[in-house]
Amino acid sequence: MLHAVIPAGGSGTRLWPLSRSSNPKFLHPLTGTAQTMLQATMARLAPLSGLSETFVVTGVSHAVAVARQLPDLPESNILVEPSPRDSCAAIGLAAAVIEHRSPGAVMGSFSADHLVRDPAAFVTVVREAVAGAERGLLMTVGITPTHPETGYGYLHTGDLVAGGIREVTEFKEKPNAEVARAYVESGNYLWNAGMFVWKTDVFLAELAEQQPSLHEGLRAIAAVWDTDDRDAAIGDLWPTLTKISVDYAVMEGASAKGIVGTVPGDFGWHDIGDFHTVGTVLPATDEGNVILGGSKDEVLLVDVHDSVIVPGSGRLVAAVGLRDVIIVDTPDAVLVCPRDRAQDVKKLVDELKDRG
Ligand code: GDD
Ligand code: MG
Would the pTM count as exceeding 0.90? Predict the structure, then answer.
């Protein structure tokens, strides 16, 4: 049975003011159903992993909301971190705890901020990735790129290993725009979907080589995780752990050693990172508008086209004569911006931080 891990951290700054550090994007229904991103992620893992083998790693300020949204998940499977130390610490903690309890287990890590249109195809792909992990590979899922996105990792694919599994000869995290363009034009690269499947002992051995102090800290915490010494160990060690993403910490280096594999995943994958993307993946009205959440009564649009409207404060959002805009209404902040500036919403969050 696969041990499934959902790292749920980060604040989703490009989805401000809906996503806040106190109420981050994975707690919101952003995929057009009543389920939040976290609930949808968990639901798609159900055919692969039992509840007692499913873990969420999240920050102390979100643990209560996570437990409320996932009432069937055993509370001890919510691994709570005192502060965010990026994805390698979060995923590595789960790996170390799982390895301590079930040595040599196969685990998969699945981001909490993705939309998957075809959950059955997703399950098939993950099963193939499990087969790769059992051969000792650090497995990824590869998505056919549609544009030179700089916010993703890229996988240079090599020879077929077995079944649908290919070798990854280079893992490059977040290349610059020029490099990303060359990768996409070459036709030899896939996007890294942000899903990883590996044997916990294989991953931890690689972590030990590439990030020895992070590995040591995580092992020490995991060794006492199921004892009364957990809080003291977390309190002492967590703030000392290297803050780095698993992509830079482990995957780039591992790919140079020929131990990374990928299964191409054609299951309608989208990273829900900004409001423009929300507008491209969700069903639109005849006018091309996407209205997220709220009720019809909360929106009044006349001659508005191809826009993304997010009501949510209870008051009416009314607009006339607009095209390609984003309007997000929350009780304490309203966002208005053109769709082609959706990436720049994070600049507002930076400004707000500067204001203190
Ligand atoms: N618990 C916890 N704590 N989770 C975290 C933390 C943290 O400090 N930091 C990040 N995460 C979680 C996020 O919630 C997400 O589920 C996952 O780890 C990946 O982190 P992101 O911050 O969203 O990474 P990214 O989007 O920049 O890049 C990753 O995903 C891309 C695809 O969406 C990389 O794996 C890229 O290579 C990949 O293309
Ligand atoms: Mg992400």
Answer: yes
**Contacts of 14 by beta carbon, 8 Å cutoff, 6+ apart:** 273, 274, 275, 342, 343, 345, 346
Q: Which amino acid is residue 164, in one-letter code?
A: G
Place of tokens 């036709």: 187
d(CA 320, CA 91): 46
Do 160 and 131 form a contact (C-beta atoms < 8 A)?
Answer: no
Say what angle helices 212-223 and 86-101 make with each other, to 10 degrees: 50
pLDDT in tens, 18-64: 999 889 999 999 988 889 999 999 999 999 999 999 999 999 999 99
For the CA of 194, the nearest atom of ligand 1: 35
CB distance 53 to ligand 1 below 6 Å: no
Which ipTM score applies to this complex? Answer: 0.99
Tell whether ligand 1 has an atom less than 6 A from the beta carbon of residue 7. yes
